[in-house]
Specification:
This protein is an all-alpha fold and 75 residues long. The chain is 79% helix and 0% strand. It has one domain.
Length: 75
Amino acid sequence: MTPLELKTAFRVMQEELTALRDRVVALEKDKEMLDFFEKKKLESLLKEERKIDRKMCPKCGVKPAHYFHVRSCNG
């Protein structure tokens, strides 16, 4: 191969490598964003479960309308 052909081939390979690097960076960002949203979903689901568990009457399992139900529940 002539030096000009080698130079051209090298440029083409360099451009392909740059494009691949950019693509990998974009995919990693997408994955990070997905992981972030999945964590947020899990956190929100856990918070909802905690709220539901906390508001249930420990004696009868019914969701009480007010504090006095839990205090005076016969179970």
